[in-house]
């Protein structure tokens, strides 16, 4: 379906040690890597953090095309920004590592953590209504993506992509309006189903994200190796 859909599927069916580690430990590691990538001004230390992000992504058994897509998207816009603001120093190119590192860490975290474990801690920080809305929106998005694909296929088969630009714009507007109404209808049906099944509070009530396992030793080992690599890089 899409990059996000593929990551969502792999997150729940992956077999790597990262998939079996607790969500809390992985979130702490991901936050640490992104924070270090933002805070460091040393090109050497920034490169160490970037290499660590690559190692996480490549050892998570995610398809390489997903890892490559996570790097390509931020790289394009970052490269454009660099070209517009480049001062002529070669070290400026290393600042591209910051968005690339964040992309790699994000695809590693999302691709190894089921979505309930990702939204459960968020729902405990933000107001309950906001957390529930984010959870429902995330799940409804996949249904709307399927509807969009079906609508585009139907328009193509019925000649919706032919004719003048004004006609194509009109057809596209009508299709988006139909999709918007369908989204509201799906949301109402989903909420009614939740009420029938006894929903009376928090959606993300699971506590799996807090369950520590022996596979969390991999995350602890990653912290240790990262700290050792940063110390070595700072001394050279």
Walk me through the structure.
Helices cover 76% and strands 0% of the residues. The chain is mainly alpha-helical and 236 residues long. It has 2 domains: 138 residues, no CATH class; 79 residues, no CATH class. Helix 1 packs across helix 6. The chain is globular and about 65 Å long. The mean pLDDT is 77.
Summarize the structure.
The chain has 236 residues and is mostly helical.
Please mark out the parts with pLDDT under 50 across 5 or more consecutive residues, or reply none.
Answer: none
Determine the structural class based on helices, strands and strand pairing. Answer: mainly alpha
CA gyration radius, whole angstroms: 22 Å
Number of helices: 10
- H and E order: HHHHHHHHHH
* Percentage of residues in DSSP E strands: under 5%
Into which percent range does the helicity of residues fall? over 70%
Mean pLDDT score: 77
The domain tally reads: 2
Largest sheet: none
Q: What is the global morphology?
A: globular
In total, the number of strands is 0
The rounded distance between the terminal residues' Cα atoms is 46 Å
Features:
single chain, 236 residues, mainly alpha, 2 domains
Secondary-structure topology with pairs:
Elements: H1 3-13, H2 17-20, H3 23-39, H4 43-59, H5 64-85, H6 97-112, H7 115-125, H8 128-157, H9 165-196, H10 216-235
């Amino acid at each position: 379906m899409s990059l996000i859909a593929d990551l969502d599927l792999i997150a729940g069916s992956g077999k790597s040690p990262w998939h079996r580690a607790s969500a809390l430990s992985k979130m702490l590691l991901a936050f640490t890597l992104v924070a270090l990538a933002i805070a460091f001004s040393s090109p050497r230390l920034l490169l160490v953090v970037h290499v660590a992000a690559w190692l996480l992504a490549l050892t998570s058994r995610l398809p390489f095309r997903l890892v490559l897509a996570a790097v390509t998207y931020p790289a394009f816009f970052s490269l454009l920004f660099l070209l517009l603001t480049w001062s002529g120093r070669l070290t400026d190119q290393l600042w591209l590592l910051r968005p690339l590192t964040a992309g790699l860490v994000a695809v590693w975290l999302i691709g190894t953590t089921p979505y309930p474990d990702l939204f459960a801690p968020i729902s405990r920080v933000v107001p309950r209504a906001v957390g529930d809305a984010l959870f429902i929106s995330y799940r409804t998005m996949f249904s709307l993506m399927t509807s969009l694909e079906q609508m585009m296929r139907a328009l193509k088969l019925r000649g919706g992509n032919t004719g003048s630009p004004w006609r194509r714009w009109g057809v596209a507007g009508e299709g988006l309006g139909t999709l918007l109404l369908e989204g509201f209808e799906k949301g109402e049906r989903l909420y009614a189903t939740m009420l029938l099944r006894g929903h009376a509070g928090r959606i993300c009530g699971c506590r799996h994200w807090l369950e520590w396992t022996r596979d969390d030793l991999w995350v602890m080992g990653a912290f240790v190796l990262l700290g050792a690599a940063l110390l070595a890089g700072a001394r050279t």
